[in-house]
Design brief:
Blueprint lengths: L5 E3 L17 H4 L3 E3 L2 H13 L6 E4 L6 H10 L8 E5 L5 H9 L16 H4 L4 E5 L9 H10 L1 E3 L6 E3 L3 E6 L3 H6 L5 H7 L2 E4 L10 H15 L9 H9 L5 H15 L10 H4 L3 E2 L8 H15 L10 H5 L3 H11 L6 H9 L1 E2 L1
Parallel strand pairs: 1-2, 3-8, 3-9, 4-5, 5-8
Antiparallel strand pairs: 6-7, 10-11
Helix pairs in contact: 9-11
Length: about 350
């Protein structure tokens, strides 16, 4: 599966944003971005600001937030948009081959080097190089990266001839580079060279307003791919998806909706919400969660899914595997009302991940 989409709602949501390339529509420049939350708009305003420059950009954020999409948008809005956008994940290449991937090698430079190979920097000449998970770059390669950023020059492995390139670097990390510096695992001079213009990509839990838009986007995407017609997303299930905190962010949501579309037999989306409930319940440190709290939350969640219906084969009692009289008794004991305040109580007390 490809990179996760980030968030915008549609072209109207960001029509006021200027784009460096007037020949490209905003829809093309921000392709795959679905949402309109304040947090996202602030991030994209930074993209619009820095894109026309040649400054290095350091994109920070949790895994699955769509840092690669932000990097792509920076390139698409830049003066380099007609040149190559080259990507490399620093954790995806074995350490012994990473130097060759970045800087290339000459024939015979090492065992198996049967021909000359240009590296990612040469391939990105005139364009943009995106280095993901920059915090995992081996310490011994960091001076070479610093040199090419400062001087625009390097040597291929096995060569004494200096190569010169003009590359705009965008790096990303989901780690704490400050901690890596204190642990002597990342050079501070390289950090300052990379961190010319930092951009923080907000986690999905800070963009709850975008979740219904993303859900609809992914449902349309996967139902079309699987040749299904899904016309309805139940309000209860959408509420559950919105209240979940998505520790894996957009990537997790995308995978969850793909699974949901696979499991949907008809025109109404069927979400395997048990997968979300199986995650840990995160609570305020000042207010410990008791077993009674967990039972109350589980019943409230089930009532929400059934729209307050208790009896019948699809009612809350059947889903919980207990008799309806037992469920009524537990609701009275736990102080659960069948009014809308039930869900308000749940959201106030808990958030999910």
């Amino acid at each position: 599966m490809g990179s996760p989409s980030i968030a915008f709602s549609d072209a109207r949501s960001f029509a006021s944003m200027s784009v460096a390339n007037e020949n490209l529509s905003e829809q093309q420049v921000f392709e795959g971005i679905v949402g309109c939350s304040t947090a996202l708009m602030e991030t994209l305003e930074l993209v619009r600001t820095v894109a026309p420059t040649d400054s290095a950009v350091l994109i920070e954020g949790e895994t699955g937030t769509g840092k690669e999409v932000i990097a792509s948008a920076i390139h698409a809005c830049s003066k380099r948009r007609d040149r190559a956008f080259i990507k490399l994940n620093c954790t995806a290449i074995p350490v012994g081959l990473l130097e060759s991937e970045l800087f290339g090698h000459e024939k015979g430079a090492f065992t198996g080097a049967v021909a000359q190979k240009i590296g990612r920097f040469e391939a990105a000449h005139g364009g943009t190089l995106f280095l993901d998970e920059i915090g995992d770059l081996p310490l011994e390669l960091q001076p070479k990266l610093l040199r090419v950023l400062q001087e625009g020059e390097f040597e291929r492995l096995g060569s004494t001839q200096t190569q010169r390139v003009n590359v705009r670097l965008v790096a990303a990390t989901n780690g704490d580079l400050g901690r890596l510096i204190s642990e002597k695992r990342f050079r501070s001079d390289l950090y300052y060279r990379l961190n010319v213009f930092p951009i923080w990509v907000p986690p999905l839990r800070d963009r709850a307003k975008d979740i219904p838009l993303l859900v609809s986007h992914f449902v349309a995407k996967y139902s079309a791919r699987m040749q299904k017609v899904i016309e309805r997303i139940p309000a209860g299930e959408m509420n559950s998806l919105t209240s979940y905190s998505w520790p894996g962010n957009i990537r997790e949501l995308q995978n969850f909706i793909e699974c949901s579309v696979i499991l949907t037999p008809g025109s109404t989306l069927c979400c395997p919400l048990a997968r979300l409930r199986s995650g840990a319940i995160v609570h305020s440190e000042a207010e410990p969660v008791t077993l009674e709290d967990l039972n109350r939350e589980h019943i409230c969640r089930t009532l929400e899914q059934t729209g307050g219906v208790i009896m019948g084969p699809n009612g809350a009692a059947a889903r919980l595997g207990i008799k309806r009289t037992t469920l009524y008794a537990r609701m009275r004991k736990l102080g659960i009302s069948r009014s809308n305040k039930t869900s308000e109580y749940r959201v106030a007390k808990f958030h999910f991940r």
